[in-house]
Amino acid sequence: MLNEQREDYIRAIYLISLRKGVARGKDMSEYLKVSKNTVSAMLVRLSDENYISHKNYGTVALTKKGTSLAKQLTMKHRLIELFLVKILKHQSNEVHSEACRLEHDFSQKSISAMNRLLGNPRLDPHGSQIYQ
């Protein structure tokens, strides 16, 4: 199992790639609010673990394994955001950071139950597709 930090990087690569078409270390540094050196060190680890492919100072791409994990994490994050808004009555502009913390800890069993409770929704509270 990956630690939270690795999962955050994988999800960041995924989201940046969706928005910009490609992910670069500089983009990740800004998104995650960490130094470029910190990003470089993590990219080496993720490459060694076959979650990404990258070249120094170039673009970063998720492997099939990395993409699968990123989609799963994004689905969990968006479902948790919706749960926080619909069930716990949080404001939609306040749920992102809470969902970032919780996405790493909820079991698949809990996520499935949450999905059923919410009626198998398609969109998160921000209008993004939950399942991609």
Give a concise summary.
It contains six helices and three strands. With 132 residues, the chain is mostly helical.
Residue ranges: pLDDT <50 for 5 or more in a row? none
| Terminal Cα span | 23 Å
CATH architecture of the largest domain: Orthogonal Bundle
Helices and strands, in order, run as HEHHEEHHH
Strand content: 5-15%
As for the number of domains, it is 2
Keywords:
single chain, 132 residues, mainly alpha, Arc Repressor Mutant, subunit A, Diphtheria Toxin Repressor, domain 2, three-stranded antiparallel β-sheet, 6 helices, 59% helix, elongated
Describe what you observe in this structure:
- By secondary structure, the chain is mainly α.
- The chain has 2 domains: 4-62, Arc Repressor Mutant, subunit A; 68-117, Iron dependent repressor, metal binding and dimerisation domain (Diphtheria Toxin Repressor, domain 2), CATH 1.10.60.10.
- Helix content is 59%, strand content 7%.
- It contains 6 helices and 3 strands.
- It has helices at residues 4-20, 25-32, 36-48, 64-86, 96-102, 108-117; strands at residues 23-24, 52-54, 59-62.
- A hairpin with a 4-residue loop joins strand 2 (52-54) and strand 3.
- Helix 1 (4-20) packs across helix 2, helix 2 (25-32) crosses helix 3 (36-48) and helix 4 (64-86) crosses helix 5 (96-102).
List the helices and strands and how they pair.
Blueprint: H1 4-20, E1 23-24, H2 25-32, H3 36-48, E2 52-54, E3 59-62, H4 64-86, H5 96-102, H6 108-117
Antiparallel strand pairs: 1-3, 2-3
Helix pairs in contact: 1-2, 1-4, 2-3, 4-5
